[in-house]
């Protein structure tokens, strides 16, 4: 998928300490893209609307807190 038009924004929950930083591009038609801000040219996740809602739900409930 071509992500050249993606407008990336840093998550408000990503601290300014250079730690775990997530960026999201929600301006693309029908998808939300996610990347690690420390590796902007690295891999990206591309999620559909229902996948994005499930992902955010898991983040809010702590589903991923114990993953390393």
TrEMBL record:
Q: Which InterPro entries match?
A: DUF397
Q: Which Pfam families match?
A: DUF397 (PF04149)
Per UniProt, residues of the DUF397 domain are 6-60
Protein name (Swiss-Prot/TrEMBL): DUF397 domain-containing protein
């Amino acid at each position: 998928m071509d992500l050249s038009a993606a407008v990336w924004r840093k998550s408000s929950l990503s601290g300014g300490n250079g730690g775990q930083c997530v960026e999201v591009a929600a301006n693309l038609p029908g998808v939300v893209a996610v990347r690690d801000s420390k590796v902007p040219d690295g891999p990206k996740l591309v999620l559909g609307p229902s996948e994005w809602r499930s992902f955010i739900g898991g983040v809010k409930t702590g589903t991923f807190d114990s993953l390393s």
